[in-house]
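Handoff note, outgoing to incoming analyst
You'll be picking up this chain. Sequence as last confirmed:
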Amino acid sequence: MNELLTTSEMAEADRLTIAGGIAGIVLMENAGRAVAKMVPADLCRVVVVTGPGNNGGDGFVSARVLAERGHDVTVAFVGDRARLKGDAALAAGRWQGATIDALPAIVGKCDVIIDALFGAGLDRSVEGAARAMIEAINAAGVPVIAIDLPSGINGSSGAVMGVAVQATKTVTFFRRKPGHLLLPGRLHCGPVSVAGIGIAASVLETIKPMAFANGPELWGHAFPVPRPEGHKYARGHAVVVSGGLSTTGAARLAARAALRAGAGLVTIASPSDALAVNAASSLAVMVRAVDGAAALAEFLSDKRRNVVVLGPGGGVGPAMREQVLAALGSGAAMVLDADALTSFAEDPAALFSAIAARPECNVVLTPHSGEFSRLFNLLEINAHVSAKLEMVREAARVSHAIVLLKGADTVVASPEGRASIADNAPPFLATAGAGDVLAGMIAGLMAQGMAGFDAASAAVWLHGEAATEFGPGLIAEDLTEALPAVYRRLFARLTG
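Most recent structure output, in case you need it:
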């Protein structure tokens, strides 16, 4: 159940289900009952804050079910009840208790609040009485159960539409929405439960969602689990290009990560003046002198060297641009990070054209937000899309590459629009060098034959899991040391 449905896709799931013979009111009844189950029996006084849409209809169902179970239930309606239509109006008609106008003071006299004000499709700023109620809910100091999404969160982007409910937990239906994972929406949801309400999984074959929660369910089928008959030469050879004498650490972090991720061989392509430093601090990682773009092209002409990382500690400027273009001409799979991206900030079209000329999509760009802005703003990526998911998809389309925009909600997207959203990164992963390790992990997986989108998504998930495995106090060097424990659990899961 790793598919993520936008508001329009969820509406289509409802439509297909109703067209297949299940009435909309049945879906609403099932949704309301699922919400009611989340209210503990000892929380007697319940306020259900409803609005005029289908989310409000779910709230009326949950209110009726809870009253039947003996709870003291108050329904507080925001807006004009005459606006209720269809199934929502039918659900409201089945509620036998009183419905009062929503006033902020109402939520101060209860044990739990059910937020049924707005659903996932909210696309306007919250104002007036609705805003006052959301602020009162947040100030009430009691548990809040949100229906579908906390009111005020846009389901497709995770954006706060002016103000949003801070839920204790959220109950959604059939599949999660991107807004459950993307920031800041995820921070408002609390734990998210997914309830089945009668929509069959077969509708996904028609909808064909393109966004997914990042996890082994997405890429596990392609993950390179070592086999007894395997050997190092069958697991690929990753090359990491080092910067000069004073900036070798980033390349060494990436190289060690590529090796830990499973690449059979890893070589640091080092400038001659940094050769001694790189060699002295590397054991299983090999080091070779490679000076400049022409030498790098010659080094990569050996097709056994099947993936290359450029950028970490490499320096910004013409020399880096020349190395990137030379490597792109080699045909090796590539991970471009940090300085390799910033070096093209004044002429991103040159990079994107060179990527587009390659016969396959096996280039991964791994910017953080600053690098993303520098590389893509000149093409006005942000002028017509504002949500992170859509920005990364657009960046992948125009660059002809897999684009990975780092953050607590890292998004990976392919040029055709397939995307993953991660939600497993702990806050202490924000540390110097962590991005270099991620770049190396992607390369290590690509060396073993994983496609770029799968490798980038898997590496992001493993990166977060390794950080959690180590815990507070993490520095970048710890990530590779925590990775074996994560791999043990993953392999058991994939082969069990």
